[in-house]
Design a protein that fits this description.
Layout lengths: L1 H13 L1 H28 L28 E6 H11 L5 E6 L11 H5 L2 H10 L2 E3 L4 E3 L9 E5 L4 H17 L1 H5 L3 E4 L4 E5 L2 E5 L2 H10 L6 E4 L8 H9 L6 E3 L5 H12 L3 H10 L9
Parallel strand pairs: 1-2, 1-5, 5-6
Antiparallel strand pairs: 3-4, 6-10, 7-8, 7-9
Length: about 290
């Protein structure tokens, strides 16, 4: 042991760059263990053991079907959007969970603070998953998962895009299996409602509106811009967000987990320089929403 210790010491002194890298990794591991310990203390009694997991969030309007793989959970921002969706949904298989505003950026928040957050706790409970006090992680078990689709429903604007990004970051940080195994979807609401007398049609974006105008040059119609989900009545929400025949869902998939992790760190992590560089390099790919 003494000879091994001397050899290791000599190697470390002879390779300062590698030694610093090893030390940095050790410090990161130490901080992670300490954060996990704080997280276990923070969530003790909040994320209950599996036997008590049936205690769902108070704001969850759940589906009653016993075929949970056929059930869908819509995550909405605030009570205004969720109110209409609760009224319009098919409560046999569609559940609604409102969250308050923008959730924490889980790549910036300490583990204990993130797990103690009420909104994040509510989502984990609604999913039917639990926190492992020993490992400091969320346990992913498909047999416990209460929904076959988890759908983020946000407005078709910049704030809505930010809410989606925070939601995906939360899932990637805590339960990446949901994304990897393709349980996660984004609802794509239309941007316009075109009224032609007693008839109407929904259009998804500006391009669709321009195409409609070109195809209908002589028709008189009213263009209503749908500003937010909270402003749609239950019938409109049913037609555009809930009806399987008419709604548009975008499945969130991932081809390369390493590239995905790197991208999350660049865009949602602490390094403003890395985020700025990525945006500059990919500015032509950005979808602008007003």
């Amino acid at each position: 042991q003494r000879i091994a210790a001397e050899e290791i010491s000599n190697w470390l002194h002879s390779n300062p760059k590698e030694a610093k890298s090893i030390l940095d990794k050790a410090l990161v591991s130490k901080k992670a263990r300490e954060a996990a310990k704080r997280a276990r203390a923070a969530v003790k009694g909040k994320l209950a053991p599996k036997k008590a997991a049936l205690k769902m969030p108070s704001k969850l309007a759940d589906a009653y079907s016993s075929n949970r793989k056929n059930c869908e959970l819509f995550i909405t921002e605030g009570d205004s959007a969720s109110g209409g969706m609760k009224e319009a949904r098919d409560n046999e298989f569609q559940a609604i969970l409102p969250v308050r505003g923008k959730i924490l950026n889980t790549l910036k928040a300490p583990l204990d603070k993130a797990l103690a957050n009420a909104e994040i706790n509510a989502m984990i409970r609604a999913f039917g998953l639990e926190f492992n006090n020993k490992t400091g992680k969320i346990i992913f078990d498909e047999n416990d998962l209460r929904y076959g689709k988890i759908i983020i429903a946000s407005d078709a604007d910049q704030d809505g895009s930010h809410i989606q990004s925070l939601f995906y970051t939360f899932l990637w940080t805590f339960i990446p299996e949901l994304i990897k195994q393709e349980y996660v979807y984004a609802s794509v609401p239309p941007l316009y409602k075109i009224i032609l007398g007693k008839e109407y049609v929904y259009l998804k974006d500006d391009d669709a509106l321009q195409e409609f105008k070109i195809k209908n040059p002589t028709k008189k119609f009213i263009v209503n811009r749908l500003k937010g989900l909270g402003e749609l009545d239950p019938h409109e929400l049913e037609e555009t967000m809930l009806d399987k025949k008419n709604r548009v869902l975008k499945q969130i998939t991932m081809k390369d987990s390493l590239l995905a992790g790197d991208l999350f760190n660049k865009l949602m992590g602490d390094s403003a320089a890395a985020r700025k560089k990525y945006i500059e390099e990919h500015s032509q790919e950005i979808e602008v929403r007003i």
